[in-house]
Design brief:
The structure is a homodimer. The first copy, chain A, is an alpha+beta fold. Helices cover 50% and strands 20% of the residues of chain A. Chain A folds into two domains: 97 residues, Arc Repressor Mutant, subunit A (Orthogonal Bundle), CATH 1.10.10; 57 residues, Dna Ligase, domain 1, CATH 3.30.1490.190. The relative contact order of chain A is 0.12.
DNA sequence: TGGATTACGAAAACTGTTTTCATTTTCGGC
DNA sequence: GCCGAAAATGAAAACAGTTTTCGTAATCCA
């Protein structure tokens, strides 16, 4: 079985888990379940990578064209509040949203050639940050590390570009 | 001689250097020298820390109240283009500008209590990032690391807050 | 000093996001 | 199953930060 296939299967379970967790959150907050919200969250959780509001809205509109920006924004805020989704800003002026992926916390490498965003995690890096903070009498709540540059494997980079999925998550 | 004093003196030389460098840049680009631009850049270079457009405009207006947002924005773009200034975004939605300080490259710790922004640099951290990029066949052009958290020395933190210079640069 | 070129400032435009408001939907209690 | 309070929706307006436009003014080289 190809790893990709396996990943997809796992993902589907994860998606259901998240939908359930969100339903829980909504109920605990005394909010209501609506068709639009369900459409938006299930669309979102099935998308991979770092999704902009516009990307999400486009997908959502394919299911229900009457859904507008306002509802998507509002739902994304709820998702963030629920802790199921994180908001990121990579400096191109628009917010991107990321359902927690396989790795709980991670940092990013952003290829400026093809727009691909890779995730990585390194414990030594985390530890080093902690010790630096310690030295400066600082307590870290969260951090953000982004490496901007280029895939060295230009072929792959260019291929990705050609496939037109710039800014999509690593797959 | 107090370190602060010394720093201030050094700074004044640096400011002159930068004004000259900018004048150079302007000339090489075939642009014109204007009173407004001079006011803006010399005000900017004399401010410390991570300056927002509004903060800069307020200062500038004390010298020449007729200068407006447009000119400040335009001049800041030129400063960035000249390489003398870097634009930063810390996620509060507004751009901040930073004249290169003593340390050429550095990262940031941002106190969420008092808004203070500390700069730091650590060669091991840089090296570690390089080796991680290498492992992933990635070439880093630039990076950004921000630690969000709190000064552990709450007293100092609260004092700074009381002094009302939240979000000001380390001094 | 003239005149082409660039810069200025005020206001309008623009972008991404949030809010408003009138209407519709949800859902616990009957 | 229906009522009604509470919440959600969608279209449009509002908003904040930034950029552009446009008519006027300043710069600076020949």
């Amino acid at each position: 079985m190809a790893p990709v296939k396996k990943f997809r299967e796992l993902d589907e379970n994860l998606v259901r888990q998240k939908e359930a967790a969100f339903a829980d959150f909504i109920q605990k907050k005394g909010l209501k379940t609506t068709r639009q919200r369900n459409t938006i969250i299930s669309t979102f959780f099935r998308l991979r990578g770092h999704i902009s509001v516009e990307e999400l809205l486009n997908q959502v509109k394919q299911v229900n064209p009457r859904i507008g920006y306002a509802t998507v924004y509002r739902t994304l805020h709820l998702l963030v509040e629920s802790g199921l989704v994180e908001e990121r800003r990579f400096g191109d002026g628009l917010a991107r949203y990321e359902g927690h992926s396989d790795v709980e916390h991670h940092d990013h490498m952003i290829c400026l050639e093809c727009g691909e965003i890779f995730e990585f995690f390194n414990p030594r890096l985390e530890a080093l940050q902690e010790s630096l903070a310690e030295e400066n009498n600082f307590q870290i709540f969260r951090h953000r590390l982004e490496l901007y540059g280029a895939c060295k494997d230009k072929d792959a980079c260019q291929k990705r570009k050609a496939r037109g999925n710039a800014a999509a998550g690593a797959e």
